[in-house]
Design goal:
Number of helices: 6
Distance between the termini: 64 Å
CATH architecture of the largest domain: Orthogonal Bundle
CATH topology of the largest domain: 434 Repressor (Amino-terminal Domain)
Number of strands: 0
CATH superfamily of the largest domain: lambda repressor-like DNA-binding domains
Structural class: mainly alpha
Length: about 100
């Protein structure tokens, strides 16, 4: 098993799995059965930062609907996030100027 600090990009993996599982209204036991792992192992992944084997990661990503890029190419997600922030700022500026023009 890998340590979380040795796996950049996986810092939020367990929390992301847990959140997705709850959104999909799956119990820990149900998700663990779908992935073919013990529910206690899933609890360790979700809560203790345990990084599972690649086949388990792939199954969790598929079942939970998580974006694979976030974990295997985190630079893309950071670039995309920065780009989204620029778009939001520009959109806010343009919508604010439209609002001001309508008030006149």
């Amino acid at each position: 098993m890998a340590n979380i600090k040795d796996c950049p990009g996986f810092e939020t993996f367990g929390a992301d799995v847990k959140e997705a599982r709850k959104v999909k209204q799956l119990s820990r036991k149900t998700l663990a059965e779908q992935v073919n792992i013990d529910w206690r192992y899933l609890a360790n992944i979700e809560n203790d930062g345990t990084i599972p084997s690649l086949p388990v990661i792939i199954q969790l990503i598929k079942i939970c609907g998580l974006p694979v890029e976030r974990y295997f190419n985190p630079e893309i997600m950071r670039e995309e996030s920065a780009q989204r922030q620029r778009v939001r700022r520009n959109w806010r500026r343009s919508s604010c100027s439209l609002t001001r023009q309508r008030r006149r």
